[in-house]
Write a structure and sequence with these properties.
With about 90 residues, this protein is of the alpha+beta class. It is about 45% helix and about 25% strand. The protein contains four helices and three strands.
Amino acid sequence: MEVKEIEELVSKLINDALELDEVHVKFDGSQCRINAVSDMFDDLSRVKRQQAVLKPLADIIKDGTIHAVTVKTFNKAQWQRDKLFN
């Protein structure tokens, strides 16, 4: 699979499973980085947030399509602040 196809697949799997305002996926051939934005994360711990994002990816992690994943989650206010400083 090409890099762009993997990014689109990861984005689709996450968007189909979760109610997100935004999801940003970058894949460089070995590392998949995901930024997920939603107020659904407000009441979840950091671990629960990451588990929610990783769960829809279980099959493609298991089959080796992706293997190294970094997840950052934000509510909308956190995302706006983070964008100002990055």
